[in-house]
Amino acid sequence: METIIADTYEEMSRIAADMIERQLMRKPSSVLGLATGSTPVGLYRELVRRHKEQGLDFSKVITFNLDEYLDLRPSHPQSYRYFMNENLFNHINVDPKNIHVPYGHAGDVEEFCEWYEQEIKRAGGIDIQVLGIGADGHIAFNEPGSSLGSRTRLKTLTKQTIEDNARFFDKAEEVPRFAITMGVGTILEAREILLLANSRKKADIIAEALEGPITAQVSASALQMHRHVTVIVDAEGGSKLKRADYYKWIFQEKKRLIPRLIGKVT
Ligand code: F6R
Question: Ligand 1 within 6 A of 137 CB?
Answer without folding.
Answer: no
